[in-house]
Write a structure and sequence with these properties.
The complex is a heterodimer of chains A (about 525) and B (about 525). Chain A is of the alpha/beta class and about 525 residues long. Chain A has three domains: about 290 residues, Tubulin/FtsZ, GTPase domain (Rossmann fold); about 140 residues, no CATH class; about 45 residues, no CATH class. Chain A is built from 13 helices and 15 strands. Chain B is an alpha+beta fold and about 525 residues long. In chain B, about 50% of the residues lie in helices and about 15% in strands. Chain B has 18 helices and 18 strands. Chain B has a six-stranded mixed β-sheet with strand order 7-12-11-8-9-10. In chain B, a hairpin with a 5-residue loop joins strand 2 and strand 3. In chain B, helix 13 packs across helix 16 and helix 15 crosses helix 16. Classes of the chains: A alpha/beta (about 525), B alpha+beta (about 525). Chains A and B meet through strand 5, helix 3 and helix 12 of A and loops of B.
C-alpha cells in the first residue's frame, strides 16, 4: 500500500548471528548518518523498514532497530567485562546517530574483539535483548550444543512468553508489517531455537513473510570430531525445520561445504580476510546480507518479503543460495557494461552458501542487486561508433543489468535492482581491501593511503541446482553416522525416528532441485 | 586403583569414604548458603549476573536456579529442590536444609563405623512414621477466605517483607477465589500477572478484569470508555495478500486502482459489520463499544472505526484471548458472519494509561470475572521480579490449600511434633536401624533451629523451650519469631501446605538415601553436554 513503510522485524538468534547483526546494524547506522549530509541523493533504502521510533520515559525520542536478539549468558558481555550494549537509547530525534556529533567510540582493535557487543555502535531498545540464562556462552559445561536443547528452550513457558511479549511489543505498533527476518546460527543449539521461533511466527502471524538466514561461522577442523558431528546434525535439523516453517531459507557461510569433510573457505579476488576470525567472516556476510535484502527495503516500489519468497521458492524450493561480489570490480573510467563483460561467461559472484562452485549448475530463479554504481557509469555510448556488445546498447543501467542476466541465464526468472547507494565500510568494519580507492574502485598496483569509505557490491539470491548436490551430500553424511555414538545429542530431545524423518525430508528437498527433470530442458 | 581406570585412563575417581565426604561436604555447603534465607526473618541474597543484572531474593528456588552450581552433588540436590518447587511451589529452602542435615546426622554415625545401609533403613522407617504423624496432625477445614489469607500470608512473608506481604496476601487470595469455578480444577493461568514500572511495590493490586499492555492505535479513539460492550475477535482487519500466492494483472493504472479497491472492499465489509452491530446495540444508550482483535487492524480500518466512536485494540496476545472472554463474558468470534449481541462481553470501565512509550489498557469493573489481573507495580526491575516470584508462590500455596482441603501448622510446629513422635517410635525398633530414626528426628529439628537463629534467638534455647511447651500442652507449638517464645501455631494463624510437607519428607529421604549409598564417584563422561 502507498504510504508507510512496510515494517520488518529482525530476530537475531545466536552468537555468530550477533556478529553478523552487529555489522549489519553498524551499516544501517552509517547509512543513516550519511543521509543527513544531504550530499547524497535522498535515500533509496527506507530506514523505517528496520527501525522504529519510540520515546523514553523522559520524553526523548529514540530511533532504534526493530530487533529481538537472543544470546546466552555471558555472550553479550564485552571482553573487558563491561556491559557495552547501551540499552538506553540516546535521544537525538530521527535520524539519531550522526557520526559527527557523537563522540566517536574507541574503535576496538581486531585482536581485542571477542564478542559482538565489542564493536556494535548502535543503541538498542531495552526490549531487544533477551538472554537465555540457562546456558553458558563460554566454558566447559552447560552450553547450548544440540538442536534439541534449543528447541526445548522455546518450549519452556518462561522463554516462550518472553519472546511472545517482545514480538507483541514490536508487531502491535506496525501498521503494515511485511514479515520477519531471522538471523540464526545453524551450527549449535540455536538452530533449534530458530526452528521453534519460526514455527511460532508461522503459527501466530500467518501470511507474513519469514526469511531465514542460517549462519555458519568459519572453517572447522577435522580434529574436533564431536563438534563437527554436532555441527552437521544441527545444520541438517536446522535447515529442514527452518525450511518447513519459513518462506525462504538461505544458508550463509564462507566455508566450502556444509558436510563433514572440510573444504577451504571461499576466496574473494579483492579481499584479504582471515576465515578463522568471526569478526571478518561476519563483516563479509553482513555485506552480502545488506545487499541481497535490498528488494524489500526499497523506498519506492519495494518487492515485499512474501513476493520475493514466492518468486524464489516456487515448487517447494524454499532453500536458496546467496552469492556476492565484494567489491564489484569497477576500474576507474570503466562503464558498467565493460565491467560486466569482463566476467565473461562465468558466474560473477562468489558463493556464500557453502554449496560449492556455482558454475555448471542450473539456476531456477534469482534476485540480483547491484549497488554503488554511479549513474554516469551506466553506459558511455559514443555516438556514431557501433556498441561493442549488446550490453552497451542499452540506455539505462537497469536495462544493462537485465540484459546481462538474460544473456547469462536465459529462461530464468530474474529480478534485478540497481542502486546508487554503495555499501559503507566505515570502521569498525575491518580493513579487508587490498587495492581499492576510497570509493571502492578497483585500482591496480599497491593500495593508496586513503581508507576505503564505501564499495560497490553485486549480490544475488538464487535457487540453484547446486543445492541438489549439497543437500544430498548432507543426507549422505548423516546416513554414515553411527548415531549410537552421539547419544548425548539424542538425549537432548531428538529421537531416532526424527533422524529418519529428517533424512527423508532432506532427500525430498534435494529432489526439488534436481536439474534434469525440468520441463524447460 | 579403581577398575574404571583400566578402561578409561582419564577417569577421575573418588571411593568409599572419600566419595561420601565429597557428597556430604557439598550438601552441607549448599545448606550453609541457603540457611540464612529460611523463614520470614531470613535475610536476602543479592545475585549479580555476568551482565550486571541485580536480583535480590530470598526465594530458595530462585537462588538455586540462578546460582551456577558446579559441584555435581550440589547440583543434584539443587535439582531435587527445584523439582519440589515445580510440584508444590514452595519448600525449596527447607528441602535443601533437611537434606544437608540428614547427611550431617548420618555422617556422625557413619564415622563411628555404622554402615550407611543401616542408616538408610532407619530413614525409611522414620519417613513412614513421620508421614503418619503428618496425617494425624493435619487440620481439615473448610477453605474460607480467612483461612486462605493465613496460608497465603505464611507463604508470602517468607518471600518479601511483611508490609508488602500483607498487600499481596489479599490480592493473591482474592484472585484465586475469583478464578475458582466449582467443578473445575483451579487454573492459575487465568490470573494474568502484568508488571508496570511505576510507583511502589505496595501499590500492587488486583484488577477485577484485565490489563493489556498495548493501547488503541488511533489518536481519535477515546481514552476512557464507561459501560462498554466488548467484542473479542480473531479476524484480520487489514489489507493483505491472500495466503495462497496470487497476483493480479492489469493494463492501466486505473484498472489497478480498481482491483486494489475491490480487494479493500472485502475488509471494509467486515468493518461495516462491526459498525452495524455497534449501531444496533448502542442505538439509544450512550454505551461504549470496544473491539479487541487478535489479528491486525490497518490504519484505514482504524480510521473508519474511530469515526464511529469505536475503540479498537489490535494484535491482542493469544494467551489473553481466553482470559478476555472469561473476564468480560461473551465469546471470541472467529468470523463476522453471525455476529449477534450474545457474542459481546461487557466491562464497566475501559481506559488507557500511558507510561513512556508503553501503553496499558485497563478493562475493569467486569461483572463476576473468571479471569483477573494482578498488576505488579514497583519502582525498579528487581522489585518487580521479586514481587512476581512471590506472587507465583503465593498463588500456588492457595491452590494447594484448596486442593488439599487441609493444612498443617507452621512455624516449626510440625517438625517439633514429628521429631517428638519419632523419638518415642525409635524405641519400638530393634537393632541399629533405630540410630537412623534418631538421626532423622534430629535432622527435622533443623527447621525450627534455623528459624530461631535467623530471627536472632539462640537456636538451642528456643528449641528446648518449644519442645518443653509441646510436651506439656500436647498442642502443636511453634516459635513466635517476634518474641522468641513458644506459641500455638494454629492460634497465631501460621499455616503451611500439607502437600509441601509431604513432598518434602518424600524427596528429602529419597535423595539423602541415594547420596549415602554412593560409594564411588566416577567422572568419565564423553560429552559435556549436560554439564
Amino acid at each position: 500500500m502507498a504510504g508507510g513503510a512496510r515494517e520488518v522485524l529482525t530476530l537475531q538468534l545466536g552468537h555468530f548471528a550477533g556478529f553478523v547483526g552487529a555489522h549489519w546494524w553498524n551499516q544501517q547506522d552509517a547509512a543513516l548518518g550519511r543521509a543527513t549530509d544531504a550530499k547524497e541523493s535522498p535515500g533509496e533504502l527506507c530506514p523505517d523498514v528496520l527501525y522504529r521510533t519510540g520515546r523514553t520515559l523522559h520524553g526523548q525520542d529514540t530511533y532504534t532497530p526493530r530487533l529481538i536478539l537472543m544470546d546466552l549468558k555471558g555472550g553479550v558481555l564485552s571482553s573487558d567485562g563491561v556491559w557495552r550494549v547501551k540499552s538506553i537509547p540516546n535521544g537525538k530525534g530521527s535520524p539519531p546517530l550522526t557520526t559527527a556529533t557523537t563522540p566517536k567510540p574507541l574503535i576496538p582493535t581486531e585482536a581485542s574483539i571477542r564478542v559482538w557487543s565489542d564493536f556494535l555502535r548502535v543503541h538498542l531498545h531495552p526490549r531487544s535483548i533477551c538472554m537465555i540464562q540457562k546456558y553458558n556462552h563460554d566454558g566447559e559445561a552447560g552450553r547450548l550444543e544440540a538442536f534439541g536443547q534449543g528447541e526445548s528452550v522455546l518450549k519452556e513457558p518462561k522463554y516462550q512468553e518472553e519472546l511472545e511479549d517482545r514480538l507483541h511489543f514490536y508487531v502491535e505498533e506496525c501498521d503494515y508489517l511485511q514479515g520477519f527476518q531471522i538471523l540464526c546460527d545453524l551450527h549449535d543449539g540455536f538452530s533449534g531455537v530458530g526452528a521453534k521461533a519460526a514455527e511460532l511466527l508461522q503459527d501466530e502471524y500467518s501470511g507474513r513473510g519469514i526469511i531465514t538466514w542460517g549462519l555458519l561461522p568459519g572453517p572447522y577442523h577435522r580434529g574436533e570430531a564431536q563438534r563437527n558431528i554436532y555441527r552437521l546434525l544441527n545444520t541438517a535439523f536446522g535447515l529442514v525445520h527452518l525450511a518447513a516453517h519459513s518462506s525462504l531459507v538461505c544458508p550463509l557461510s564462507l566455508g566450502g561445504s556444509l558436510g563433514l569433510r572440510p573444504e577451504p573457505p571461499v576466496n574473494f579476488p579483492y579481499l584479504h580476510y582471515d576465515a578463522t576470525l568471526p569478526f571478518h567472516c561476519s563483516a563479509i556476510l553482513a555485506t552480502a546480507l545488506d545487499t541481497v535484502t535490498v528488494p524489500y527495503r526499497l523506498c519506492s516500489s519495494p518487492v515485499s518479503m512474501v513476493h520475493l519468497a514466492d518468486m524464489l521458492s516456487f515448487c517447494g524450493k524454499k532453500v536458496v543460495t546467496a552469492g556476492a561480489t565484494i567489491p564489484f570490480p569497477l576500474a576507474p573510467g570503466q562503464s558498467l557494461p565493460d565491467s560486466l563483460m569482463q566476467f565473461g561467461g562465468a558466474t560473477p559472484w562468489t558463493p556464500l552458501s557453502a554449496c560449492g562452485e556455482p558454475s555448471g549448475t542450473r539456476c531456477f530463479a534469482q534476485s540480483v542487486v547491484l549497488r554503488g554504481i554511479d549513474r554516469a557509469c551506466h553506459s558511455q555510448l559514443t555516438p556514431g561508433t557501433p556498441p561493442p556488445s549488446s550490453l552497451h546498447a542499452c540506455t539505462t543501467g537497469e536495462e544493462v543489468l537485465a540484459q546481462y542476466l538474460q544473456q547469462q541465464q536465459p529462461r530464468v526468472m530474474s529480478s534485478s535492482h540497481l542502486l546508487l547507494t554503495p555499501y559503507r565500510v566505515a570502521p569498525p568494519y575491518p580493513h579487508l581491501f587490498s587495492s581499492c580507492s576510497p570509493q571502492g574502485m578497483v585500482l591496480d598496483g599497491s593500495p593508496k593511503g586513503a581508507a576505503v569509505e564505501s564499495i560497490p557490491v553485486f549480490g544475488a539470491l538464487c535457487s540453484s541446482s547446486s543445492l541438489h548436490q549439497t543437500l544430498e551430500a548432507l543426507a549422505r553424511d548423516l546416513t554414515k553416522l553411527d548415531l549410537r555414538r552421539w547419544a548425548s545429542f539424542m538425549d537432548a530431545g531428538v529421537e531416532h525416528d526424527d533422524v529418519a524423518e529428517l533424512l527423508q525430508e532432506l532427500q525430498s528437498l534435494a529432489q526439488c532441485y534436481h536439474a534434469g527433470d525440468s520441463l524447460v530442458d | 586403583m579403581a577398575a574404571i581406570k583400566a578402561v578409561n585412563s582419564k577417569a577421575e575417581v573418588a571411593r568409599a569414604q572419600a566419595a561420601l565426604s565429597v557428597n556430604i561436604c557439598a550438601a552441607r555447603g549448599l545448606q550453609d548458603v541457603l540457611r540464612t534465607n529460611l523463614g520470614p526473618k531470613g535475610t536476602m541474597k543479592m545475585l549479580v549476573s555476568g551482565a550486571g543484572d541485580i536480583k535480590l531474593t530470598k526465594d530458595g528456588n530462585v537462588l538455586l536456579q540462578e546460582m551456577q552450581i558446579q559441584h555435581p552433588t550440589a547440583s543434584l540436590i539443587a535439582k531435587v529442590a527445584t523439582a519440589q518447587d515445580d510440584v508444590t511451589g514452595d519448600g525449596t529452602t527447607s528441602n535443601v536444609l533437611i537434606i544437608g542435615e540428614l547427611l550431617k546426622q548420618a555422617d556422625l554415625y557413619i564415622s563411628e563405623g555404622l554402615h550407611p545401609r543401616i542408616i538408610t533403613e532407619g530413614f525409611e522407617a522414620a519417613k513412614i512414621k513421620a508421614l503418619e504423624v503428618l496425617e494425624e496432625v493435619k487440620v481439615t477445614k473448610e477453605m474460607k477466605r480467612k483461612v486462605l489469607l493465613d496460608v497465603a500470608r505464611t507463604s508470602l512473608r517468607t518471600k518479601v517483607h511483611a508490609e508488602l506481604a500483607d498487600v499481596l496476601t489479599e490480592a493473591v487470595v482474592d484472585s484465586v477465589l475469583a478464578v475458582r469455578r466449582p467443578g473445575y480444577p483451579i487454573d492459575l493461568f487465568m490470573v494474568e500477572i502484568m508488571e508496570m514500572k511505576h510507583k511502589l511495590g505496595t501499590d500492587t493490586k488486583l484488577i477485577q478484569g484485565l490489563v493489556l499492555d498495548h493501547g488503541a492505535r488511533h489518536p481519535d479513539m477515546k481514552k476512557r470508555v464507561e459501560d462498554a460492550f466488548i467484542l473479542i475477535c480473531n479476524v484480520s482487519l487489514e489489507y493483505e495478500k491472500t495466503e495462497v500466492s496470487s497476483g493480479f494483472f492489469y493494463k492501466t493504472a486505473e484498472e489497478k486502482e480498481k482491483l486494489v479497491k475491490a480487494e479493500r472492499k472485502f475488509i471494509e465489509d467486515r468493518v461495516q459489520k462491526i459498525i452495524d452491530l455497534k449501531d444496533k446495540v448502542c442505538a439509544q444508550s450512550n454505551k461504549g463499544f470496544v473491539i479487541i482483535n487478535q489479528k491486525g487492524i490497518d490504519p484505514f480500518s482504524l480510521d473508519t472505526l474511530a469515526k464511529h466512536g469505536i475503540v479498537a485494540l489490535r494484535r491482542a496476545k493469544r494467551r489473553n484471548m481466553e482470559r478476555l472472554s472469561l473476564a468480560c463474558g461473551g465469546m471470541a468470534v472467529n468470523s463476522f458472519e453471525d455476529l449477534t449481541v450474545d457474542c459481546l462481553g461487557h466491562a464497566g470501565l475501559v481506559y488507557e494509561y500511558t507510561l513512556g512509550e508503553e501503553k496499558f489498557t485497563f478493562i475493569e469493573e467486569c461483572v463476576n470475572p473468571h479471569s483477573v489481573t494482578l498488576l505488579v507495580r514497583g519502582p525498579n526491575k528487581h522489585t518487580l521480579t521479586q514481587i512476581k516470584d512471590a506472587i507465583r508462590d503465593g498463588l500456588r500455596a492457595i491452590k494447594n490449600a484448596i486442593e488439599d482441603g487441609c493444612m498443617v501448622p507452621g512455624a516449626g510446629a510440625i517438625e517439633v511434633a514429628m521429631a517428638e513422635a519419632l523419638v518415642t517410635y525409635k524405641n519400638s525398633i530393634k537393632g541399629r536401624a533405630r540410630l537412623g530414626v534418631q538421626a532423622f528426628a534430629d535432622a527435622l529439628l533443623i527447621i525450627p533451629k534455623v528459624l530461631a537463629q535467623n530471627a536472632g534467638y539462640d537456636p538451642q534455647e528456643t528449641l528446648v523451650k518449644v519442645q518443653a511447651e509441646h510436651v506439656e500442652s500436647k498442642q502443636l507449638v511453634g516459635i513466635d519469631l517476634n518474641t522468641g517464645e513458644p506459641m500455638v501455631a494454629a492460634d497465631a494463624g501460621v499455616w503451611d501446605n500439607y502437600c509441601v510437607k509431604k513432598q518434602l519428607l518424600h524427596s528429602c529421604t529419597v535423595i539423602a538415601t541415594n547420596i549415602l549409598l554412593v560409594d564411588e564417584i566416577m567422572r568419565a563422561g564423553m560429552s559435556s553436554l549436560k554439564g
